[in-house]
Amino acid sequence: MNQTRGSLPSGVRAWLFGLTVVGVLMGWVFLFSASYPLSAAQWGDAFAVAGRQFRFLMGAIVLFACGAFLPLRWFRVGAFFAHGAVLLLLVLTLRFGVSVGGAARWLAFGPFQVQPSEFAKVTLVLVLAWAMGQWRASRLWWQKGGWWLLSVGLWIGSVVLVLLQPHLSGGIILASIGAATLLFARMPLLLWLATFMGVGIAGYSVRHAILHPYQQKRWQTAHGFRWGDERRLHYQSRQATLALGAGGWFGRGLFQGRQKFLFLPSAHNDFVFAVIGEEWGFWGSVGVLAFFTLLIYWALRVAASCSDPFLSGIAGGLGFWLWFQALLHIAVNVGLLPPTGIPLPFVSAGGSSLGSTLLAMGLLVNVARQGEAEQGRGMGNGVGDGRGRDRGTHLSRHRPRDRRTAKNL
User: Long-range contacts made by residues 196-201, C-beta under 8 angstroms, separation at least 24?
Assistant: First the structure.
């Protein structure tokens, strides 16, 4: 079975691994610079936030290794159960979640807190890519209809559970990830458009029942800085744009930013890009954009090289997520969107965000490694152990001799 669609450039795995290393190292430096004033003022230790993030990094590296080296067939088999477990955690979060700022988004496990919505971004990609593989392998219309309903149900259910926390930006990101994954997992374009439009219209129709009043007001006042009742709402955005403007072309220099000295709330998290822009200037900000552009470029190259919808869905869905979330974070920092709590991948403080990011990068490396290995041997049989259920999707007829030859290989 020919599982590769196009030529995968040599060295793509090295590119993805290198981007991961650069993202982790530079992200920690950026985070320390943005967080040490708050750490010193609140805990008396300049390394309080950055040190905790370093400990989170140790666990995130384990997740990266799991994503990069575990057989991809394990993720294929376990996708449904993994996402089911995350959905259960999201339900438990609504009842037992730790509330911060009026939103219950974390579950406490002893001294640790986990944000299930961050890991839902990875498992949603896996389960939708798996479901689309089953859809393509099905022959009967009612089977295809069942897999389509399952895909849409898992997609909508995940988004609704996150919106109920409430977590508006998380719901928007999950909705976008789901749409992208279905497209990259080879859902026919007309069906994808109909599904996307149907889900979008349904979501818009029930927005008042799901969104809290303050969330609706926040989006209604997203454009333009208003000095009336919304002055407090836009305080963070104003401080962020002041920081970016003060950076000029080349910035004030590393550790030399001023807005992070308790003028800019959440400088180590939701507004860390503003600190980067103040200290590294316009060209530093462009460098961050270039980093995420390279990431999605290589992810899409990997996705385009795979005929297996599960593998192409993983590569395209995960690459789109990291790129799209970075764009939303930057849009908030420059004042194009209201503050809604969007972390910058690799940089913003938080163990769940860092762990899910490195797990995603590990999976991207894994898919690229499988593609390079098969291409290096000059054959396309079973990339990522994708035999079996998806076989009929790609070649409907095989000669017996061909099957024996492929099996022996």
Answer: 199/152, 199/155, 199/156, 199/175
